[in-house]
Design goal:
Layout: H1 2-12, E1 18-20, E2 28-30, H2 67-98, E3 111-116, H3 120-128, E4 134-140, E5 144-146, E6 165-167, H4 168-173, E7 179-183, E8 185-190, E9 195-199, E10 211-214, E11 217-220, E12 225-226, H5 234-237, E13 239-240, H6 244-262, H7 268-274, E14 276-280, H8 284-304, E15 313-317, H9 329-341, E16 344-347, E17 351-355, E18 359-363, E19 369-373, E20 376-379, E21 383-384, H10 387-396, E22 421-423, H11 436-468, H12 473-486, E23 499-504, E24 507-514, E25 517-523, H13 524-537, H14 541-557
Helix pairs in contact: 3-11, 6-7, 11-12
Family: Belongs to the NADH dehydrogenase family.
EC number: 1.6.5.9
Pfam family, one: Pyr_redox_2
Length: about 575
């Protein structure tokens, strides 16, 4: 059987012609005999299968990445993600601030609250109050909120004036119900008729005269004006530093004195007079202004007015034994030593008797009168009541007899107003210092109080409806308990957050409460804390961004010495 299969297979094999080269002849075909060997025969005329080729070995070189390079890669990715996330959040917040939503219209059924002023107290109240429960009207002679702690930085150009203000309409447009704002000055308050009369005092105004509106509640937060103690020439021959226009005027007069000192033909005594800057008042405002002036002279005037910078003098006059009486003795001594190093003349126990156009008459500690020439004098004294406040006190009669300001109770209710007038801030006479920190906390408290009054009114209406509809006893009892809880009003409690002041040369002082005591610090590190604290207290992201940019501009390019 196997022989037969072999014969069949041999018949199928075909000879393969293979050319063979001979040495002395042509190439002739050569026929191999038919054999059973398949080495030179192809089955079915197909070529032999190729021999498998083993692949060449692949050598992979693994490069080890160092730990430092890995750290840098991770750090770069995290930094990029942080920048993108922060930028997105900033853009979203800015977009949200610029696009306020729809507001509810005024509701005649709601009670009307008239707010006089838009300072620290009034603005804090507006931020806190829920306008969905009231119709709110704001009246103020200026249409912006001013961050007064940075006001001493404006005259020297450390901060731009527009960076520390926030339009009042920005605040009112972000409330639930529409808040009306009128730029005008309140002229009179009638507590019996519950009306407020005000008028437009701007340079450009229409034909309309004074206007009178009614109120259910009045928030009196007009603050105070600068106290001159009746000193002759204080109002006529000095600059104040209480409002934004005061700071802008002070900046213009400062550069005016410097440029006048450069003018040819001036005597040495006249140049010394023009370059003598006097600050009256040793509180935080006066101390910070003196420190800012020193920085302006050392960091900028020496570069652009080298012939005058060494002749500029700064003097601080204070009637008390020392400056900054609200700070600890250690910080007072540190401030005085810093002023001495910065060549700022500090005259304590010195009383101002008269301010003339070119000189100030003072009484020194020994009782002698001395006349000091000056080119610019800044009055940073205390506060006194506005005329409208005095008029309101006269209308309240025996309920208002305090000569320092309006008398209020623990809930900021004006004495003798039957609970219809609330007042706080510098216009009131309380046991607290007249500072922005106190006014802000008082305003926020009154805002929460109005929210509590609205909640009480809603619960009373709900309880009356339940009784009228003869609801179940447990429902009436539940609402009664809520009403009892809401009807309890907590008195105002002031929480002191500390005191800060800038004293020049990138140094600041801080007196901060800690546990049952205080922490006192001063120096460059405190200066950084001072800046961060002031940034955090600014009203909006816009203000914080602008102030930071101002500081960066001053650090890189210096302060501007041009006149407005």
């Amino acid at each position: 059987m196997s022989l037969r299969l072999a014969l069949r297979a041999s018949r199928r094999l075909q000879p393969v012609q293979t050319p063979i080269y001979r040495q002395n002849g042509p190439l002739l075909p050569h026929f191999y005999p038919k054999t059973l060997s398949t080495s030179r025969y192809l089955l079915n005329n197909s070529p032999p299968p190729p021999k498998p080729v083993e692949p060449a070995p692949v050598i992979v070189q693994v490069r080890r990445v160092g730990k430092w390079r890995t750290f840098l890669q991770i750090l770069g990715r995290v930094t990029l993600a942080t920048i993108l996330t922060t930028g997105g959040l900033v853009y979203y917040m800015a977009w949200k601030d610029r696009h306020p939503g729809e507001q509810l219209p005024h509701d005649p059924s709601k009670k009307t609250i008239v707010v006089l002023g838009n300072g620290w107290g009034a603005t804090s109240m507006l931020k806190t109050i829920d306008t969905e429960d009231y119709n709110v009207i704001v009246i103020s002679p200026r249409n912006y909120w001013l961050y007064t702690p940075l006001l001493p930085s404006v005259p020297t150009g450390s901060v731009d004036p527009r960076s520390i203000i926030q339009p009042t309409r920005y605040i009112t447009r972000h409330k639930k119900r529409r808040v009306l704002f009128y730029e005008g000055e309140a002229m009179a308050v009638d507590p019996e008729k519950k009306t407020v009369t005000f008028q437009d005092t701007s340079p450009i105004h229409g034909e309309g005269g004074p206007s009178t509106i009614n109120y259910d509640y009045l928030v009196y937060a007009l603050g105070a004006e600068t106290q001159t103690f009746g000193i002759p020439g204080a109002k006529e021959n000095s600059c104040f530093l209480k409002e934004l226009w005061d700071a802008e005027q002070l900046r213009s007069k400062t550069m005016d004195c410097i440029e006048s000192a450069v003018f040819p033909g001036q005597t040495d005594s006249e140049v010394d007079r023009l370059l003598h800057m006097i600050v009256v008042g040793g509180g935080p405002t006066g101390v910070e202004l003196a420190g800012e002036m020193h920085d302006f002279v050392v960091e900028d005037l020496k570069k652009w007015y080298p012939e005058l910078a060494d002749r500029v003098r700064i003097t601080l006059i204070e009637a008390l034994p020392n400056v900054l009486p609200m700070f600890s003795k250690q910080l007072i001594a540190y401030t005085e030593s810093t002023f001495k190093q910065n060549k700022i003349d500090l005259l304590t126990r010195t009383m101002v008797q008269e301010i003339k156009p070119k000189s100030v008459v003072v009484k020194d500690p020994s009782g002698n009168k001395v006349e000091i020439p000056f080119g610019l004098l800044v009055w940073a004294g205390g506060n006194t009541m506005r005329p409208i406040t005095k008029d309101l006190m006269a209308k309240m009669g025996q309920h208002q007899t305090n000569k320092r300001g309006l008398t209020v109770d623990d809930h900021m209710v004006l004495a003798g107003s039957n609970g219809t007038i609330y007042s706080f801030g510098d216009c009131t006479a309380t046991s607290y210092a007249p500072t922005a920190q106190v006014a802000a906390q008082q305003g926020a408290y009154v805002g929460r109080l109005f929210n509590q009054l609205a909640q009480q009114a809603r619960l009373e209406a709900e309880l009356e409806e339940l009784k009228r509809s003869k609801a179940e006893l447990h429902e009436i009892d539940s609402v009664s308990k809520k009403l009892l809880k809401v009807s309890k009003y907590k008195p105002f409690h002031y929480s002191h957050q500390g005191s800060l002041a800038y004293i020049g040369s990138d140094k600041a002082i801080a007196d901060l409460p800690f546990l049952n005591g205080n922490i006192s610090s001063g120096g460059v590190a405190t200066f950084l804390f001072w800046r961060s604290a002031y940034l955090s207290n600014l009203f909006s992201l816009r203000n914080r961004s602008l102030v930071m940019l101002d500081w960066v501009k001053v650090f890189i390019f210096g302060r501007d010495v041009s006149r407005d």
